[in-house]
Structures
1.
Amino acid sequence: MSVDRSVARQGITDALPLFVPAIPFGLVIGLAITEAGMNPLAGWSSSWLIFAGAAQLTLITLLGGGVALAAAISTALVVNARHLMYSVALTPAFQRQPRWFRWLGPYLLIDQVFALVTMRPEEDPDRFRTYYLAAGATFWVLWPAVVALGLLIGPVVPDEWNLGFAIPILFIGLLVVGTETWPEVVAALTGAAVTYLVASLPNRTGLLVGSVAGVTAGTIVERLRRG
Amino acid sequence: MGDLAAVVIVGVGTYVMRAVFIVALAKKRIPETVLIALRYVGSAVLAALVVTLLTDAGGNVAIGFPEVAGFLAGGGVAFRTRSQIWTLVAGMVVFWVVRALV
C-alpha cells in the first residue's frame, strides 16, 4: 500500500508541471467557446468528453465559424488521429492489465499521459496502473476546471509569457530522459525532421507522417544493428 | 443541440481511437517485429509533437534562439535532475531571459 501511494504521488508530481502550460490553453478554449457563440455547457463538456485540447479548439472554432457540422467533426477527428498510435504503442503494456482498466485507461490517454508512461516506463503492472491513473486523473480533474475558468473570466494569463512553450520544453526533457538507445535517437530525430519538412500539411497530419517515418527509421536502424 | 451532438461524436470517436488497439488486441499475440517497431513510437511521436507545437497556423515552424536556448536548458536539467518541475523552471526562465536579450 505504501508503495502504491508513493507511485501515485509520483504520477501527480510528474503531471502537475505538464499541466502548467495547459492552463493558458484551457483558458483560451473557454474564451473560444464564448466567441463561437456556442451553448456554454456543450462547449465546456468537450473538456471531459473529448479531453484533447487541440481537437476541442479545432471543433469549437469551426463550429463558431459556421462550417458544416460534418466537416467540423471530421477535421477534429483528424486532429486526434495520433491517438491511434498511442493505442497501438501501449497495447503490450495493457495486455498485462485487468479488463476494467483496458476500458477505462484509454479514456485518460492524452498526450501528456502517453509521454509520461512511455518515457518513464513502469515494468510492474500494478505500479504502471497506479502511475497512469494518478497522472491521468490529475489532468481529468484540473482540465475541465480551467476551461470553465476560461468561460467565466477569459484568458487571464498574458500572451507575452508564452507559457505554452513549456509543453515542448517538457516533452524535450522527457525525450532526453527516455531516449536511451541509438534506434530511439534516430526515431526521434527522423520524426522531428520529417514533421518539419511536411509542416504545411493541414490539421496536424504532418505529425502522423513524421511519426510513422520516425518509427520506420528506428526499426531499420535496429535491424541493421542486429545484422 | 447540434453543438452538443458534435462534441459527443468527436468525444466518442476520440475514445474509440484511444481504445481500439488496447481493447481489440488484448489477448492477441503480437509478432516480435511489431513489438520492436512499437518501442519507437514514443520517441518518434514526442519529437514530432515538439515540431508540431512550434508550427503556426500558416504551417511555418517558429524556432529561434530563445526556443533553442530553452530546449538546451530544459533538456540539460531534465537529464541531470529527472524532475519535471525543474525542467519547466529552467527551460522557461532561460527562454524568457534570452528572448529579452535578443
Note: The helical segments of chain B are 2-24, 32-38, 41-53, 65-81, 84-101.
2.
Amino acid sequence: MATQNSRTAARLMVAPSVILLFIWMIVPLGLTIYFSFLRYNLLMPGTEQWAGLLNYQFFLTDPAFLTALVNTVMIVVGVLAITIVGGVLLALLLDQPVIGQGIVRLLVIAPFFVMPTVTALVWKNMFMNPVNGLLAWLQTSMGFTPHDWLAVTPLAAIIVIVAWQWLPFATLILLTALQSLDEEQKEAAEMDGAGPVSRFFYLVLPHLSRAITVVILIETIFLLSVFAEILVTTNGGPGNDSTNIAYLVYAQALLQFDVGGASAGGVVAVILANIVALFLLRAIGKTLEA
Amino acid sequence: MARHVSTRRRWFVTVIAWAIGLLMFFPILWTFITSFKTEGEAVASPPSFLFFQWTLENYVEVQRRSDYFRHFSNSVFISFGSTLIGLVIAVPAAWAMAFQPGKHTKDLLMWMLSTKMMPAVGVLVPIYLIFRDLGLLDSRVGLTVILTLIDLPIIIWMLYTYFKEIPVDILEAARMDGAGLWNEILYVLTPMAVPGIASTLLLNIILAWNEAFWTLNLSAAKAAPLTTFIASYSSPEGLFYAKLSAASTMAIAPILILGWFSQKQLVRGLTFGAVK
C-alpha cells in the first residue's frame, strides 16, 4: 500500500518536468515542420499558402546552403582539432607538479566563463583589428604586413575565437580524467622500463579515450550552432564566407522574414544535429549502466 | 643527484605552465587593463601595458550613456529567475527518479537529455512568432521562461547524479523509524542534498548568464541582458575600445569568480556525470 502511494507520488513529482519538456519539444518543432511546407513571408501577411517541398528545394539547392554546410563542418572540425590536441597537452602539463598549480589552472579555464559576445568583440577589435589590434602591432613590429583576419580569413578567425572559448573545457575534463589514472599503474609502467612516449600511447591515451569521446560529442553539439560569435564579428560575411547553418537560418528568418524557407532550414539543422545526438546519447547511456 | 634533476624539471615545467596560463588568460587581462585607459591610450601604438594614466572614466561613461546597471539587473533577473524556477520543477523529478526508479526511468532521463540536443535554430521561427503574438518579445519574463526550458534537462541531470550518490540505506533506516515522506525529505534528504543543489544552482546561473542565442534573438532594448547589450558594441560610433573593455569587465567579472568556485561541478554537470 505504501509502495503504491509512493509510486503515485513519484509520478506526480516527475510529471511537471515531463509535461513541460514534452510541450517544449513538440509544439515549436511541430510548428517549424508545418511552416516549412508553407509559402509564408512576414512582409506579406495573409498570403500564406501550401508550398509542398518547395522551401526544401530552394534551401537545399541554394549555393549558400552548401557553403554554410561546409563552414559548419569546418568550424566543428577545426575547433575540435585545436581543443582536443591542445587540451591533451595542457592536461598533461597541468598534471605535473607545478608551483602555483591552482592559480595556473584558474588562468587556463577562465576563458570558458566569458560570455560569447564579449569574447567575440574583444578578439575582433582589440586583437584582430588590422589597424589597432594587438596582433597587427605584433606583426608590424616584427616587420610583417598586418593580417586582416576578419576580412581575409573570416572562418579561421571565428575558429580561433571559438577554440579559445572551448580549450578550457576540453582541458578541464581531460585533466579530471587524467587525475583518476592510477598512480601505481603509472609507476609500474615506469618500472617496466616504458619511456614517456610509450607510456603516453599505451597507458595515458587509452585511459583518456572515454573523456575524449565525451568532449568531442558535447563540443560538437554546441559547435554545430555557433551563433553569437558570427553575429557580432562578421555577420556571416564577407559574402557567405563565414555563414554556418545556424546563422543562415537566422538570416533567412529575421533578416529576410522568410518564415517558410527558414523553417525548412531549421528542420535540416535539426536532422543534422540528431545524427550527432544519436552517438552522444549512446555514449552517455553506456555510462548510466556502469 | 636524481633529486637535483627533478627540481630542475619542476622549475622548467612551472615556467612553461605559467607562460601558457598567462597566454590563455591574456585577452581577459588585456580587456581589464584597457578598461582603465583613455580611448586615445587604448589604441596607442606601441600599446602601453602598465605605465599610463589609469582612469575610471570609462566605467562612469558606460553607465551614464547606456544605463549599464539596467542591463546588469536584467541578466541577474533572467539567470537567477530561470535557475530558481528550474530547480523548483526539477528537484522533485530528480528526487523521484533517483530514489523511486521505475522501469522507464533511464529512458525518461535519456529522452530529457535529447531535448537539449535540438538546435535552437530549429525552433527559432515559431518561438519568435509565438513571443511576438503574446507580447513577450523583449521582456524579462519571456527570456526567463525560455532559459528555464533550455536549462531544465541539465538541472534534472545534475541533480539526479548527485541524488544518486546519497546512500539509500539511510532512507530505509529513516522509514523503519517511522519517518513519513515529508520528514524524510526534510530531515534526512535535504541536508545531504544541499551541496548538490548548490552546485547545480551555481553552474546553471553561469550557463544562463552567458546564454547568447535566445537572449540575442528575443531581446532588443528594454529587457536586454548583458549579452545583448555588449553585442550592441559591434556597430559602434567613434573610439570605443576602452568603453567596450569597461562594459565587458563588469559583465564577466561576477561570473568568472563564480566559475572559479565551481570548477569541479562544471566537469560533472557539463558531461552529464560521464566524467567525474
Note: Chain B touches chain A through 95 residues (CB under 8 Å).
